[in-house]
Design brief:
Layout: E1 8-15, H1 18-28, E2 32-35, E3 44-48, E4 51-58, E5 71-77, H2 81-90, E6 94-102, E7 106-112, E8 118-124, E9 141-148, H3 151-162, E10 165-171, E11 177-183, E12 186-193, E13 202-208, H4 212-221, E14 225-233, E15 237-243, E16 249-254
Parallel strand pairs: 1-4, 5-8, 9-12, 13-16
Antiparallel strand pairs: 1-5, 2-3, 3-4, 6-7, 7-8, 9-13, 10-11, 11-12, 14-15, 15-16
Domain VOC: 7-124, 137-255
Protein name: VOC family protein
Pfam families: Glyoxalase
Length: 258
């Protein structure tokens, strides 16, 4: 079955050192990487067990001096990229890359929501099914978490664009609620308030690992930094919030086997 409008279909790392990033994620998550066919910008594809799960792209020239920092971004499927991009801008978001064709791949745009959180939208050339987000598999994204200054406004914005619905909520005391997001009959992630004195609004993507304690050793061992965890979450699994050696934030989720 082809992906629905509003599905997360791809994840992409923008980084200032692609070789070092490829080595890091290979060691921590087990990803292989290969050059993308036809790319003239050094784009690579991350894969695991023969399945493509994400991409890796070095900064374009001058991007770092202009203030770009390493980051992970998600791609959300839409039926019409041009119409969806125009709708985002009309509702207070911004457009960073206008609707653009990638020959043989699809049409995409880079946008940000009204709180400044960046994301991509995309319509593939072929109506295939992406499994980059698959909560049943290690090495795939298992959770999409948005930290934002105005959770209610963010929920309304994404619901109007992508049809996401509120699920259950987990109280976090004075911080407010950890609000689950449902789409297509499953829970795909959550929206939460930004932590006081914490980083600015952003998406954090949690990738599945086979053993959270092995990953917890690998992250600092490969030059990354763990900011939180391992910590148990509902479902009997554990999470880590970390950043890679270039500073890109990401998450890991998996069981504790020892």
């Amino acid at each position: 079955m082809a992906n629905q409008h509003g599905d997360f279909i791809w994840y992409e790392l923008l980084t200032k050192d692609a070789d070092a990033a490829a080595r890091f994620y290979g060691a921590v998550i087990g990803w292989q990487n290969r050059p993308a066919e036809g790319s003239d910008r050094g784009y690579r594809v991350f894969g695991i067990n023969g399945t493509d799960v994400g991409g890796l792209m070095p900064f374009p020239p001058g991007a770092e001096n202009a203030g770009m920092r390493p980051m992970w971004l998600g791609y959300v499927a839409v039926e019409n990229v041009d119409a969806a991009a125009a709708d985002v801008v009309r509702d207070g978001g911004a457009q960073h890359i206008p609707p653009t064709d990638i020959p043989g791949v699809g049409r995409f745009a880079m946008l940000s929501d009204p709180q400044g959180v960046m994301f991509y939208i995309m319509r593939g050339t072929v109506d295939g099914t992406s499994t980059a987000f698959d909560q049943s598999k290690f090495g795939h994204c298992n959770w999409n978490e948005l930290a934002t200054g105005d959770p209610q406004a963010a929920l309304a914005f994404y619901r109007a664009r992508f049809g996401w619905e509120k699920g259950d909520a987990m109280p976090m005391g004075e911080m407010g609620d950890y609000q689950f997001i449902n789409h297509g009959g499953r829970t795909i992630g959550a929206v939460m308030p930004c932590m006081p004195e914490g980083p600015p609004p952003r998406w954090t993507f949690y990738f599945g690992v086979e053993d959270i304690d092995v990953a917890a050793q690998a992250v600092p061992g490969q030059g990354g930094t763990i900011h939180y965890g391992p910590a148990e979450v509902p479902g009997g699994v554990f999470i880590i919030v970390a950043s890679d050696p270039q500073g890109a934030p990401f998450g890991l989720v998996g069981p504790r086997k020892s």
